[in-house]
Amino acid sequence: MAAFVHFLGFCFLGLLVAVPWGAIAADEDPLQDVCVADPNAQVKVNGFVCKAMPNASDFVSPLLRKAGNTNNKLGSSVTAAGAANFPGLNTQGLSFARIDYAPGGVVPPHNHPRASEVLFVVAGTLRVGFVSSDGNSTLFTNTLYPGDLTVFPRGLVHFIINVGDSQAFSLSGLDSQNPGASLLPTVLFASNPTIGDDVLGKAFNLPQKEIDMIKAALKG
Questions:
Q1: How many other C-beta atoms can be found within 10 angstroms of the C-beta atom of residue 22?
Q2: In angstroms, rounded to a whole number, what is the distance separating the alpha carbons of residues 162 and 203?
Q3: pLDDT digits (tens, 9 = 90+) for 67-106
Q4: Widest pairwise Cα distance in the chain
């Protein structure tokens, strides 16, 4: 079974490479073969300035080799590879992520404003879901097993939780080199500067004491 799941993982990676992402990507189409990011450039553009002399090592990254540390309040760890830390992705309209989960670990409700996401389960059992933005706030939720795929449409709030008894591990491909991520608890209750308590109290029908408790929990 493990060998079969790893085979599916390679197939998933191959699919990401084979699909003509330039035709469907969220980002603008590149105007040349490659534009390896130069994060040290002083000029600021929408993305990154191209490195003058790219080399083969710019197109390889070990970022996702190791499992992330899930010893935290959420019990999860997201390791992302985008143009900022994998320069060869610059202008390619792609980013990638590894997510590790302890039993019960969760990736809280969040969205990616600039990307759709395809998630592939490598190990473990995950419950996932996203909520529609059509005014009905319909929840679409599924339980996933090794070898399963799911999609989170661009901009929609979604979540992931490990409902199994062991560590879980998934891979995600996103169609933007900088998809962005807005974690709802942080955005709403721990923004900088903070959203006014009068707004939060009205929006969530919460007394001041409970707003203070939520904010303290997010800071702790």
A1: 14
A2: 30
A3: 999 999 999 999 999 999 999 999 999 999 999 999 999 9
A4: 58
Round to whole Å and give the CA distance between 81 and 63: 7
* Three-state DSSP class for residue 41: coil
Residue type, 73: K
> CB–CB of 21/92 below 8 Å?
yes
Q: Each residue of 70-97: b (16+ CB within 10 Å) or e? A: beeebbbbbbbbbbbebbbbbbbbbbbb
For strands 158-162 and 126-131, give the pairing: antiparallel
* Distances 167 to 2, 16, 102, 146 between C-alpha atoms, Å: 14, 25, 5, 12
CA distance 217 to 214: 5
Tell me: pLDDT of 10 over 70.
no
- Is the pLDDT score of 22 beyond 60? no
- The pLDDT tens digits for 140-167 are 999 999 999 999 999 999 999 999 999 9
Q: Are 181 and 154 in contact (CB under 8 A)?
A: no
User: What SS3 state is found at 121?
Assistant: strand
Distance CA 154, CA 158 (A): 10
